[in-house]
Amino acid sequence: MNRYLYTTVLLIIYISACWICFAESNAIPIEVRLQERPFDPGYEPPYTVGPIDQPTSEPTFTVEPTKIGGDSGFLSVDSDPQGADVFLDGSNQGVTPALIRLLSTGTPSHNLRVSKSGYQDWADHISENPGQGETIYRTAYLVKIQPTITVEPTSIGGDSGFFKIDSIPSGADAYVDTDYYGSTPVLVKIPTTVTPSHDIRVTMNGYRDYTEHISTNPGKDQVYPILATLVPLAQYGSIYVSSDPSGALATLDGSTQYLTPCTFNQVISGMHTVTVSKEGYNQYTTQVQVNFNAQPKIYAPLTKYQKTGTLFVDSEPQGADIKVDNIWQGQTPQQVGNLESGYHTVKLQLSGYQTVSQQVLITAGQQTNIRQSLVKTPPEITTGSVTVSSTPSGASVSLNTDYQGVTPVSGSLDLTDITPGVYTITLTAPQRETYSSIITVIAGQVTPVQVELKSPVIPSSQNGTLSVSSSPAGAQVLLNNLYIGITPLTLSSVKPGQYGLTLKMDEYQDYINQVRIEAGVSTTASLNMTPIQKPTGTPVPTQSSLPGILVPIGLGVGAFLLRRFRQT
To answer: What pTM does this model have?
Structure first.
């Protein structure tokens, strides 16, 4: 056994010696000569071995791992300061500055986060992909986290607890009893033996101050949490409002009011409602968006409020006289305008036919239409009729001084349902002599009156002219209680003399005065109608001795007038 072991060892030694000899005989000699470089203190080796401690100036290229297909662009992310970690959709993409490849056809929604130790995280949402070869740029300006400062109040003795002051958002300045303790979150050490009364104040630019009074001290090693939820300061703008006509009442959000043109200042950013109103006009309402430090302008073109409507009247047969509220308005078919909204009495009269009277509702801004078939008068009728025509037409007709209407161009003015008897009929027209006559009305019969109005006997050079206007226009004009027309009105060749001038208009006080016409003189009467004042409350009597003086004076004047009346 030992012989075989010995033989094996010798064989191994022999083979090893042969292999070494073969390797040495076939080796290629390599000579390495090292050249000594002169010393250069500014020289840096071309390669750096080991970890890189400083961020390189070249951007980091990151290829998106999952390819959906299509072309690609880039997202360039930088930060101030640089060297921050970049996370895209939760995946680390290196440090800033970084260039990230994005597929143009990928999902256009990415969450970007930049993080660096000692700084607050910066985040952004990117809702797009770059086009082919395009680059989207993002720069994160990092905000340094202020170190927490813990200041101990003057210790009186004993153990201490803590106020832990935090805020939403964080980074606000924290004060305890007027002393500054740093930026939130901050831990303030409070001795348990100090006066248990503390005023906490947390401030931050752009937010309202947060204040809280705490009337206790934290116990030994106890942490008393204080969380200040900061409310952003309101950002203000203004609103400028003008209107046509001006002087309208502008109201902001149903509260603040000014007369136009005006400016609403200190208006909180957001949507607001502005209304502009003026008596006699429709209200204007609009909504306006107010942004910080901006001033939108509102122009309100006010439209007049229509209090009146129109009435169109027709009859079968036509030619019937129309009276609205007992005022003659022409003959059918006829449109009657400027009627106050509400109910009106409409009467149709035509000789030989029964008079029709009905109530009609007028709506502001609308036209009401009525058409009436007239019924012939039965033989047993107990009233009579009068038909009046004149040359020229347009003469005012009065029956016993009661105004009845105007003679039409064709046909006649029909006065129906007249109680039989004797009447005085009067016709007046500009530049014509007044016609007056006695007529008899018979039951069941029509009394015709045909008048040719003559020119005045007095030459025109010896007459005067009367011009009457009113504000508002449309007033009825009566001269010596005879209707002569509607304002504005001009009468030429009026006989000289003293006349009683009366103007009538709904919702206005009657104007009554004397006017004197002189030969060859033009007389002008321009009048402002006075609205009828509606009572607004119960008048409060005032103490005065004036009524006691006026009573005997009034009695004396009344006795004097009565005596004059009896003498006449």
So the answer is: 0.34
